[in-house]
Amino acid sequence: MAPAVGLTAPAQAAPVVATDSAVYVERIAPDTSRRLEPAIRLARGDRVVTVVRWYRVGGDGGFVITNPLPASVAYEESAADFQDVSVDGGRTWGHLENLRVGTRNATPEDVTHVRWRIPASSAARGRGEIVYAGTVR
After folding, report:
1. Residue 1 DSSP SS3
2. pLDDT of residue 81
3. Sheet order of strands, 16-28 included
4. In order of start, what are the domains of the chain with their CATH numbers?
5. What is the pLDDT of residue 91?
6. DSSP secondary structure string for all residues of 50-78
7. How far apart (Å, rounded) are the C-alpha atoms in residues 91 and 21?
8. Nearest to 131 by CA among 74, 88, 76, 93
9. Which strand (E) or helix (H) includes residue 123?
10. What is the pTM of this model?
11. What phi and psi, each to the nearest 5 degrees, are found at residue 10?
12. Whole-angstrom Cα distance, residue 36 to residue 103?
Protein backbone atom coordinates (compact mmCIF):
# COMPACT_ATOMS: atom_id res chain seq x y z
CA MET A 1 0.00 0.00 0.00
CA ALA A 2 1.41 3.41 -0.96
CA PRO A 3 1.75 6.06 1.74
CA ALA A 4 -0.90 8.77 1.77
CA VAL A 5 0.31 11.95 0.17
CA GLY A 6 -1.04 15.43 0.84
CA LEU A 7 -3.12 14.51 3.89
CA THR A 8 -3.17 17.05 6.68
CA ALA A 9 -4.91 17.24 10.01
CA PRO A 10 -8.38 18.72 9.73
CA ALA A 11 -8.29 22.50 10.09
CA GLN A 12 -9.93 23.95 13.16
CA ALA A 13 -12.77 26.32 12.46
CA ALA A 14 -12.13 29.85 13.70
CA PRO A 15 -14.23 30.67 16.75
CA VAL A 16 -17.48 32.50 16.17
CA VAL A 17 -18.23 34.69 19.15
CA ALA A 18 -21.18 36.89 20.06
CA THR A 19 -20.96 39.55 22.76
CA ASP A 20 -23.28 41.85 24.60
CA SER A 21 -22.54 44.38 27.28
CA ALA A 22 -24.25 46.33 30.01
CA VAL A 23 -23.07 49.47 31.76
CA TYR A 24 -23.84 50.19 35.40
CA VAL A 25 -23.11 53.09 37.72
CA GLU A 26 -21.90 52.34 41.23
CA ARG A 27 -23.90 54.12 43.93
CA ILE A 28 -22.79 54.38 47.55
CA ALA A 29 -25.55 54.54 50.15
CA PRO A 30 -25.29 56.56 53.38
CA ASP A 31 -24.39 53.33 55.24
CA THR A 32 -21.44 52.98 52.77
CA SER A 33 -22.97 49.93 51.09
CA ARG A 34 -22.48 49.82 47.34
CA ARG A 35 -24.93 48.87 44.63
CA LEU A 36 -24.93 48.84 40.85
CA GLU A 37 -27.71 50.53 38.94
CA PRO A 38 -28.28 50.63 35.18
CA ALA A 39 -26.38 53.63 33.81
CA ILE A 40 -29.23 55.83 32.63
CA ARG A 41 -27.69 59.16 33.58
CA LEU A 42 -24.04 59.71 34.35
CA ALA A 43 -22.24 62.62 35.93
CA ARG A 44 -18.60 63.59 36.14
CA GLY A 45 -16.88 61.46 38.78
CA ASP A 46 -19.35 58.54 38.57
CA ARG A 47 -17.74 55.11 38.71
CA VAL A 48 -19.08 52.97 35.88
CA VAL A 49 -18.83 49.20 35.66
CA THR A 50 -19.08 47.52 32.27
CA VAL A 51 -19.96 43.84 32.00
CA VAL A 52 -19.09 42.21 28.68
CA ARG A 53 -20.69 38.80 28.19
CA TRP A 54 -19.35 36.50 25.49
CA TYR A 55 -20.88 33.41 23.93
CA ARG A 56 -18.98 31.09 21.64
CA VAL A 57 -21.50 29.99 19.04
CA GLY A 58 -19.14 27.96 16.87
CA GLY A 59 -15.59 27.08 16.01
CA ASP A 60 -12.68 25.99 18.15
CA GLY A 61 -9.87 27.54 20.12
CA GLY A 62 -9.37 30.78 21.94
CA PHE A 63 -10.22 34.28 20.77
CA VAL A 64 -9.72 37.95 21.56
CA ILE A 65 -12.28 40.51 22.70
CA THR A 66 -11.43 44.19 22.26
CA ASN A 67 -13.44 47.05 23.75
CA PRO A 68 -12.80 50.71 22.96
CA LEU A 69 -13.36 53.01 25.93
CA PRO A 70 -15.58 56.02 25.38
CA ALA A 71 -13.54 59.23 25.47
CA SER A 72 -15.69 60.34 28.41
CA VAL A 73 -14.53 57.40 30.58
CA ALA A 74 -11.12 57.02 32.23
CA TYR A 75 -10.08 53.38 32.70
CA GLU A 76 -9.66 52.14 36.26
CA GLU A 77 -9.29 48.39 36.37
CA SER A 78 -10.42 45.04 35.04
CA ALA A 79 -11.59 42.16 37.19
CA ALA A 80 -9.42 39.87 35.03
CA ASP A 81 -5.65 40.00 35.05
CA PHE A 82 -5.25 38.68 31.51
CA GLN A 83 -6.05 41.94 29.76
CA ASP A 84 -3.86 44.22 27.72
CA VAL A 85 -4.55 47.89 27.18
CA SER A 86 -3.77 50.35 24.43
CA VAL A 87 -3.04 54.05 24.88
CA ASP A 88 -2.83 54.84 21.17
CA GLY A 89 -6.17 53.84 19.70
CA GLY A 90 -5.42 50.12 19.45
CA ARG A 91 -2.15 50.29 17.48
CA THR A 92 0.04 48.89 20.29
CA TRP A 93 -0.83 46.77 23.32
CA GLY A 94 0.63 45.79 26.66
CA HIS A 95 0.27 46.00 30.41
CA LEU A 96 -0.28 49.58 31.50
CA GLU A 97 2.91 49.72 33.55
CA ASN A 98 4.93 48.93 30.39
CA LEU A 99 3.37 51.57 28.10
CA ARG A 100 4.49 55.13 27.46
CA VAL A 101 2.85 58.22 26.05
CA GLY A 102 5.60 60.29 24.52
CA THR A 103 8.33 60.51 27.15
CA ARG A 104 6.20 59.70 30.21
CA ASN A 105 4.73 56.50 31.62
CA ALA A 106 1.14 55.87 30.57
CA THR A 107 -1.59 56.33 33.17
CA PRO A 108 -5.09 54.83 33.40
CA GLU A 109 -6.48 58.07 31.96
CA ASP A 110 -4.53 57.40 28.74
CA VAL A 111 -6.18 54.03 28.04
CA THR A 112 -8.21 54.01 24.82
CA HIS A 113 -8.91 50.26 24.44
CA VAL A 114 -8.95 47.13 26.58
CA ARG A 115 -8.31 43.67 25.12
CA TRP A 116 -8.72 40.22 26.66
CA ARG A 117 -7.30 36.99 25.27
CA ILE A 118 -9.73 34.20 26.03
CA PRO A 119 -7.73 30.94 26.05
CA ALA A 120 -9.09 27.79 24.41
CA SER A 121 -9.62 26.20 27.84
CA SER A 122 -11.96 29.03 28.89
CA ALA A 123 -13.57 29.30 25.47
CA ALA A 124 -14.51 25.61 25.67
CA ARG A 125 -17.04 26.52 28.39
CA GLY A 126 -18.99 28.34 25.69
CA ARG A 127 -19.67 31.51 27.65
CA GLY A 128 -18.20 33.90 30.12
CA GLU A 129 -18.05 37.49 31.21
CA ILE A 130 -15.47 40.19 31.74
CA VAL A 131 -15.92 43.15 34.03
CA TYR A 132 -14.02 46.42 34.01
CA ALA A 133 -14.47 49.80 35.67
CA GLY A 134 -13.87 53.42 34.81
CA THR A 135 -14.67 56.92 35.96
CA VAL A 136 -16.69 59.48 34.03
CA ARG A 137 -14.40 62.39 33.12
Report:
1. coil
2. 73
3. 34-38, 16-28, 47-58, 127-136, 73-78
4. 17-136 (2.60.40)
5. 97
6. EEEEEEEEE--S-EEEEEEPPTTEEEEEE
7. 23
8. 76
9. helix 120-123
10. 0.82
11. -60, 140
12. 38
